[in-house]
């Protein structure tokens, strides 16, 4: 058994050793195979028992990159960059690595002026190409070339073609060109040196047109002709225009000095012609200026700024001449259509204000004030042709000639106002002090500052006539009211009309005397103006009713009286309606700065003059018919002549009354016009004495009224005989009344 056990143990050991051997052989087999393959070397592949070269360039992904060419060699490979690419630093026959990659060669940067003069090098991946710069063309007439072809870029002479148009000169430059207007012409559009624009002749005929559109003095016409001739000479010059514009400026200033010194500017049309000539000349000179200029003369001080640039100028500008400063901006001077030049001219006159210190009637039509120029007159001119309504207003600062005593008004000379006059349209006062006034204006012209003087004092003689005349009228009207209201023997429709006529005039005159100048309280002044409007209209309406009554007396045989209700409606209702409508439409028209009367603004005064004119016309028609009918009745022998004579007297009295009151208000239309002193005296006299005239015509000239006055005076002077005369007086009155009724029928009139 022991021997048997030993045999089994040997068998197990042998089996274990064989297993280990086989295991080691399996692990070493791959190593042995790889060792056999390495025997072919790097860059080779063993195919079977042979080593074959490996083609590295045949890989699916290019081993040298996108911009290189791969070259296979026996057992290896190498890379070279494609044309237009290189490695940095530059190498050849390299193998790929992180530092050796092919990058684009920028030929345009590496070689200066690669393509030659006047050309442009254009790089692109892997190569480049050349083109000529604008204004040049290649010698081979091909747009694209390279440096190796020997192509040259030659300048194109644009002036060989019609590039600048008429009245302009073409200037060729290297690679480009520009145009300039011929002497005597200016650009219609574009900068000084332009490539696309047209030239327009200088407006020399503007000077000739100025003398043909209005009557101007011979001296001024000669100056205009001289300026025009100088202007025309510019189109014949081929050189510098500097002496010409200086010559024109000197001619202009000499002319201004002469006209302002010899007193020939004696009317507004001459002033308009002179200022218009100055504006034309300054605008023409603006186109010729090369630099800023300032020049003085005896009567003027002129400053001109010029801005020549390729693009329209912008930004603020400040210009001063004598005691006046202008603030504006270059955009205003240039305008929307920039002409390549923008100029601003400011011309101040030494004593023009003394020659045009009137022509304020267009201002005084709006407000009854007296004005005086309180600054030097200045003319502002720019190259912008559209200055009637500026987008941005200009600012003018004026120094006062004297310390102001009233409100200041900014004005300009408006040539459209009846040959020329001062107007404040478009100009406002920004601020004012004792020394300066700042004005803002939305247009350009000749400007000044007006000083409102103290309220125009009424002439002493007119005041005296008004006070004495109105006081006397009030007394006479009061007596007339007592006469027509209390004396029964004269009561009739006609005397009723006279009674209300006198009441209306009495109240109107009393308010006029006491309230016409009470302007301190605006509301109270407006109320006074409304009352005057009402009662003066009422007086005219009662006058119209008198004309209607006389017409009925002559034309109608029966029912010649007017109903009291109709008379009240016509005499007081119609004026009330007119005043109510006027106040509703324009309440601010009642009361002015100087008087409690109707304002002259917006034609509001015609709310009174209009009805008055209508009443006068209607009354005149009635009186004409009445006179015509009276003439027919006088020619008939069957008529009661005594009655007709009495109606004739009434008619003549009424016509005289209408003429007096109507004529008075015709003169009243001119009460506020300058230079109408005589008409003011006539209006004041008639207005003050209208009560006296009414009393005289309707009372003193009436025998019946005079008899009643005599009876009253006898009763006052002889009171002790009252008992004795009472019976006879009553009898006399009764007989008089009966006589009146029987012979005239006046009580029914």
Automatic annotation (TrEMBL):
Domain G-protein coupled receptors family 2 profile, first and last residues per copy: 462-702
Keyword list, A-Z: Cell membrane, Disulfide bond, EGF-like domain, G-protein coupled receptor, Glycoprotein, Membrane, Receptor, Repeat, Signal, Transducer, Transmembrane, Transmembrane helix
Domain GAIN-B: 315-457
Gene3D superfamilies found in the cross-reference section: 2.60.220.50, Laminin, Rhodopsin 7-helix transmembrane proteins
Matches recorded under InterPro entries: EGF, EGF-like_Ca-bd_dom, EGF-type_Asp/Asn_hydroxyl_site, EGF_Ca-bd_CS, GAIN_B, GAIN_dom_sf, GPCR_2-like_7TM, GPCR_2_EMR1-like_rcpt
Keyword Electron transport: no
Listed PANTHER family: ADHESION G PROTEIN-COUPLED RECEPTOR E1-LIKE-RELATED, ADHESION G-PROTEIN COUPLED RECEPTOR
Name used for this protein in its record: Uncharacterized protein
């Amino acid at each position: 058994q022991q021997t048997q056990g030993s045999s089994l143990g040997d068998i197990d050991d042998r089996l274990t050793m064989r297993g280990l051997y086989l295991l080691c052989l399996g692990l070493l087999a791959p190593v042995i195979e790889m060792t056999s393959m390495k025997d072919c070397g790097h860059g080779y592949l063993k195919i079977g028992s042979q080593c074959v070269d490996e083609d590295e360039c045949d890989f699916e992904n290019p081993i040298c990159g996108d911009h290189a060419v791969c070259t296979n060699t026996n057992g290896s490979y190498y890379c070279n960059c494609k044309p237009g690419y290189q490695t940095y630093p530059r190498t050849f026959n390299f193998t790929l690595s992180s530092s050796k990659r092919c990058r684009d060669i920028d030929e345009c940067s590496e070689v200066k002026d690669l393509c030659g003069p006047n050309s442009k090098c254009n790089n692109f991946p892997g190569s480049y190409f050349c083109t000529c710069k604008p204004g040049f063309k290649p010698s081979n007439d091909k747009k694209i070339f390279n440096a190796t072809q020997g192509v040259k870029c030659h300048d194109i002479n644009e002036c060989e073609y019609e590039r600048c148009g008429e009245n302009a000169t073409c200037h060729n430059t290297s690679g480009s060109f520009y145009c300039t207007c011929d002497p005597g012409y200016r650009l219609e559009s574009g900068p000084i040196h332009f490539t696309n624009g047209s030239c327009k002749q200088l407006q020399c005929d503007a000077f000739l047109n100025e003398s043909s559109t209005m009557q101007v003095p011979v001296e001024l016409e000669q100056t205009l002709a001289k300026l025009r001739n100088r202007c025309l000479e510019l189109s014949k010059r081929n050189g510098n225009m500097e002496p010409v514009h200086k010559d024109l400026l000197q001619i202009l200033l000499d002319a201004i000095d002469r006209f302002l010194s010899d007193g020939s500017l004696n009317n507004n049309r001459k002033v308009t012609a002179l200022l218009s000539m100055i504006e034309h000349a300054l605008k023409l000179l603006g186109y010729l200026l090369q630099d800023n200029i300032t020049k003085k003369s005896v009567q003027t001080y002129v400053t001109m700024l010029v801005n020549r640039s390729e693009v329209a100028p912008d930004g603020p500008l400040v210009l001063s001449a004598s005691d006046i400063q202008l603030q504006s901006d270059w955009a205003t001077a240039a305008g929307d259509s920039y002409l390549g030049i923008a100029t601003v001219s400011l011309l101040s006159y030494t004593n023009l204000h003394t020659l045009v210190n009137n022509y304020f009637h267009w201002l005084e039509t709006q407000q009854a004030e007296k004005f005086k120029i309180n600054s030097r007159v200045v003319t502002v001119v720019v190259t912008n042709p559209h200055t009637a309504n500026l987008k941005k207003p200009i600012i003018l600062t004026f120094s006062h000639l004297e310390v102001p005593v009233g409100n200041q008004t900014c004005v300009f000379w408006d040539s459209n106002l009846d040959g020329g006059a001062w107007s404040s349209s478009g100009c406002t006062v920004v601020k004012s002090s004792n020394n300066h006034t700042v004005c803002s204006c939305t247009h350009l012209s000749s400007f000044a500052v007006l000083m409102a003087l103290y309220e125009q004092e009424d002439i002493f003689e007119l005041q005296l006539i008004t006070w004495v005349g109105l006081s006397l009228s009030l007394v006479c009207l009061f007596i007339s009211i007592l006469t027509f209201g209390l004396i029964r023997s004269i009561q009739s429709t006609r005397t009723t009309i006279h009674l209300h006529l006198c009441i209306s005039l009495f109240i109107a005159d009393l308010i006029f005397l006491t309230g016409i100048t009470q302007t301190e309280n605006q509301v109270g002044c407006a109320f006074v103006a409304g009352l005057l409007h009402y009662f003066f209209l009422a007086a005219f309406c009662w006058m119209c009713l008198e004309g209607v009554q006389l017409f009925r007396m002559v034309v109608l045989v029966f029912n010649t009286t007017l109903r009291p209700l109709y008379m009240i409606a016509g005499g007081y209702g119609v004026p009330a309606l007119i005043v109510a409508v006027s106040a509703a439409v324009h309440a601010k028209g009642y009361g002015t700065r100087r008087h409690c009367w109707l304002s002259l603004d917006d034609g509001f005064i015609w709310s009174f003059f209009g009805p008055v004119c209508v009443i006068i016309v209607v009354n005149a028609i009635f009186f004409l018919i009445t006179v015509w009918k009276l003439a027919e009745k006088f020619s008939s022998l069957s008529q009661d002549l005594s009655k007709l004579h009495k109606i004739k007297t009434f008619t003549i009295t009424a016509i005289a009354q209408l003429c007096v009151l109507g004529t008075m208000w015709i003169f009243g239309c001119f009460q506020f016009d300058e230079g109408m002193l005589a008409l003011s005296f006539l209006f004041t006299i008639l207005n003050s004495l209208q009560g006296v005239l009414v009393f005289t015509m309707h009372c003193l000239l009436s025998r019946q009224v005079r008899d009643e006055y005599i009876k009253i005076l006898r009763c006052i002077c002889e009171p002790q005989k009252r008992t004795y005369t009472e019976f006879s007086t009553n009898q006399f009155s009764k007989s008089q009344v009966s006589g009146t009724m029987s012979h005239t029928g006046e009580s029914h009139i």
